[in-house]
Amino acid sequence: MERLKELNGYQTFMMVVMAAMVLVFTILYPVTISRTGFAYKDTLLVQSQEGDNTVYTGKVYGVASRFTVTPDKTVEFQYGEEKYGPYSIRVDSSAAPKGSDIPAGITGMELLRGDEVLFRGGVVDVGDGYLVFNEDGSMVSGMGVNVGVYTNGDSYVLDSMEPSVTNVLDLLEGPELTHKGTWVGWAAGVFCCVVTAVSMLFADELFRFQLIFSIRNVEDAEPSDWEMMGRYITWTVVPILALVAFIMGLR
């Protein structure tokens, strides 16, 4: 307690800032990590039930969005006022591409929007996702045309929000729910704050400990102006790194 009282104004300010950071992010991390959903376009859509339908809702690029999966295996997507679908899958072995470059176990299928065939080819489940091939054997990533254009310096306009083949497959199979955030970021942030706090409270002791094997009478050594400047740089930069670690860990 005495050491805390001996801190100057800047040191006290930084200690308060670091304590506030640790407190705020210690609250945010469990809330963020406990919130699970369907990962879609760098956001999470939260799962719920509406009657017999499974619904995934959230905001994509700031716009209210929702996927609806019906018991008869169709998927509909609503992005703001725009509606897409319904999408469905029809297994068709004749659609599977053939060739030496095609993985074993490929399943031929067609992806339909209503009665319109949007995609015809094959799909291989690789555990944490899908490999999708056109009927001619070429690999594809999806059916949507998602072209971003920045306007007014900060807006992001999508020419199409139609979901991809793999999005529809995930939803029909029952996607593995995930969450944002990792405790590694929290631990790194706390570590940076603790290191900074210790370096403030025991600055002179740490300074003399570094000299104990270099000079005699280390208790008489006094830090130079360069040493003092280095301390304040450390007490400023490391908390900033802590904040970056906290924020990155929430992504």
Task: Provide a short characterization of the protein structure.
With 251 residues, this protein is α+β, with helices and mostly antiparallel strands.
| N-end to C-end Cα span | 37 Å
What's the tally of helices? Answer: 6
For the largest sheet, list the strands in their spatial order. 10-9-8-7-6-5-4-3-2-1-13
**Helix content, binned percent:** 25-40%
- Strand proportion, as a percent range, falls in 25-35%
- Tell me which oligomeric state these chains represent: single chain
Low-pLDDT stretches:
145-159
What is the radius of gyration?
Answer: 28 Å
How are helices and strands ordered from N to C? HHEEEEEEEEEEEEHEHHH
The major β-sheet equals: 11 strands, antiparallel
List the domain count as a whole number: 2
| Beta-strand segment tally | 13
Sum up the overall morphology in one term: elongated
Arithmetic mean pLDDT: 82
Structural class: alpha+beta
Structural account:
With 251 residues, the protein is α+β, with helices and mostly antiparallel strands. The protein folds into 2 domains: 2-33 and 181-249; 36-179, no CATH class. Strand 7 (107-113) and strand 8 form a beta hairpin. 37% of the residues lie in helices and 31% in strands. The strands form 2 sheets. The protein has an 11-stranded antiparallel sheet. The chain has a two-stranded antiparallel ribbon with strand order 11-12. It contains 6 helices and 13 strands. Mean pLDDT is 82; it is low at 145-159.
